[in-house]
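Q: Give me a backbone?
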Amino acid sequence: MADLKDIKHIKMPLPGKKLLPYLLHGFVWSVIFILTTYFYLSGNKTDTDVLLHNYRNLLLYAAIFYINYLVIIPKLFFQNHKIWYLAAALSLIVLTTFLVSSTFRRQPPMRFPAPGFRQEQPMIQQPRLRNQFPAPPPGQKPTPPMNLPVYNFFITALLVTGISLGLSFSGLYIEQEKQRKEAEKEQLNTELAFLKNQINPHFFFNTLNNIYSLVQTNVDDGQKAILRLSKLMRYLLYETDKESVPISREIDFMKVYLELMKLRLSPKVDLRVKFPEDFPDLSISPLLFLPFIENAFKHGISNRAFSFIHIEMGVKDDCINFKCSNSLFPGNVQAEGASGIGLENVKKRLRLLYPGQHELKIVGDGSAFIVELQINPVS
């Protein structure tokens, strides 16, 4: 839990703008009031003064609770003035107990039956009146009994103070958790925006280089490449700002990208692509798979030797399985363990977006570089 000095601006649940805390507090006190009346009536009691004293005690308990809950705890305890808090809380309890005690002492004094009366009619039970206790043994002077209602009020006031302190801590914990989650969400959005800004320039840098080399050899293919690039840009501009997109849109995006990349491939490159035809259209964060494909085209193609790129995706039972493998050559940066900006970014995004909901395996065995990604975005 954070230092109490750092949470002085945290509001307790009751003074908030939401109506639910008010309704809960009103409901609890209404139940207590109803139960007090019910137990009094169920005892066949007719002394209304007792019932009025019970109502008075309820009002005092409520005053102790809310003065402690709304004033003393936020102003003293949560400001690290614990000694002053104990003094203030104890003073409040003593003051209200004194009020109860003074009211109790103003009641008529207790009357004890005479000893001779008890001897003459030992079997007759006198009705127990208010504040009446059994008579002392013969020959012993009557002594005033302990003022039990006062002591009961004092103990109950201590319990009410403890309850208010516990509720204050629970409200503080809930508010801290809410602020922590909001901070994590804000940090997540900031990191995702930063990662997307890194992905897009990296993607355009590679794509524009490909189009530049293509225009020099074939103008028609270059024009087709520019048209496909415009479709990619439209997707990047209008779709990637969303938290999630349908997997079908992401698949269409990858298909357009692959068609663009095919224009510059030589016959020595074995490109195999398999996307699902019929699948549940799950929602997925955009641009999760592109860095792997980009990486395969950047590092898995050789102009002098046979090379391959195999891409496969399956969507089944609310689970997305993606696999991308490409050839490796001596001196390839992938074989040396350099994953590049794109791969590092997608790893961070997966950790932020799907903690415990994904499994990523990246293996380089000397002849091939294999990426396997499994995501369960529904769980």
